[in-house]
Amino acid sequence: MKLKSIFIRSLVAPAVVALTVICAAVAPPASASADIVTDSGARAAKWLATKQEADGGFSSGFSKGSDVGATADAVVAFVAAGLPVESVKNAAGLSPLDYLKAQFSSAKLNTGEYAKIAIAVKAAGLNPAQFGGENVPNQIMAGYNSKTGIFGDNVFVHAESILALATNGDTVPTKAITTLESLQSPAGGWSFMGSGEPDVDTTAMAVQALIAVGRPAATGTAGRGMGYLHSLQNNDGGFPYQSPSQYGTDSNANSTALVAQAIIAGGTQPEAWAAPGGNPLSAIIILQQPSGAFAYQATMPGDNTLATIGAIQALYRVTVSGK
């Protein structure tokens, strides 16, 4: 099944907040200690908290200004770090939640954005069905095509929509679940557009969605997805976006974080997936920059907001759903 792509992944950028964390930059050994992992996450959250925009939101880094998906992802990251998101306020007193509420009246949101908002609101301990005068789960359902069994316009959004509804305790259409399973490739992965070479990010999201609706993590479609992900692990313990790929197969922070979250959703810890040179968490930590932010890849040094958001969630051992 071919799906039109409108989704832009967000792993956000952040705010000015009083976050008290003091720790040194650490390049971890193959197996990072628990203290190193949490200190790394705290430094990243502190950096992220300096990046909030004037409207309370966060930029994706792809364009100027705040982005809905990036802001929602930032909320999950701050909650993961143990920071009450209401306390993440800029000089104008606006929080990320204020920005998200404002978007209901000022912009036409797509299904993927509603799914991200639902996940963020739930992670913050609020009710997505009563947020800013909007019933967010209902808006996700408005993006469901009962004929095709698909939410939105690509498999990543479809899987994240299922995850958002399941996390909130809402009923997920059976056809949506079976359609997601039917899009699994013979190799065990899922591709962003529903056909072609599978990718790590979409597969990790699909696995989390299936586990959230009750599919076993070790067997069936979710189990095969886990096996596919494991088969692509690099020697440093991290993961590429895709393999084979004309763009190379170096580990990147975003994909590695999503796999770590899928592992956690399946009831295992990322350290259990040990490779000769490390595990998923140590592969993420080695990409931390002097500022506390994370680089996308070792060959692409520099502060990357999207990589930093994913790293925070993984290092604090939460899934995409914030659990």
List the main descriptive attributes of the protein structure presented here.
two-stranded antiparallel sheet, 12 helices, mainly alpha, Glycosyltransferase, 323 residues, single chain, disordered N terminus
Walk me through this protein's architecture:
The protein is mostly helical. It has a single domain (34-315), classed as Glycosyltransferase (Alpha/alpha barrel), CATH 1.50.10. It has helices at residues 34-48, 68-80, 96-106, 111-123, 136-142, 155-167, 174-182, 200-212, 220-231, 253-265, 280-285, 305-315, and strands at 144-145, 150-151. It has a two-stranded antiparallel sheet with strand order 1-2. Strand 1 (144-145) and strand 2 form a beta hairpin. Helix 2 (68-80) runs parallel beside helix 4, helix 6 (155-167) packs parallel to helix 8 and helix 8 (200-212) packs parallel to helix 10. The longest helix is centred in the first third of the chain and has 15 residues, at 34-48. The two termini are 31 Å apart.
In short:
It contains twelve helices and two strands. It has 323 residues and is an all-alpha fold.
How is the CATH topology named? Answer: Glycosyltransferase
Question: How many alpha or pi helices?
Answer: 12
Outline the low-pLDDT stretches.
1-31
Helix and strand element order: HHHHHEEHHHHHHH
**What is the correct CATH architecture?**
Alpha/alpha barrel
Strand content: under 5%
Terminal-residue CA separation:
31 Å
Give the biggest sheet. 2 strands, antiparallel
* Structural domain tally: 1
Strand order of the largest sheet: 1-2
Oligomeric state, counting identical vs distinct chains: single chain
Structural class based on helices, strands and sheet pairing = mainly alpha
The total strand number stands at 2
Radius of gyration: 18 Å
Can you tell me the CATH class?
Mainly Alpha
**In percent, how helical is the residue content?**
40-55%
Backbone shape? globular
What average pLDDT do the residues reach? 90
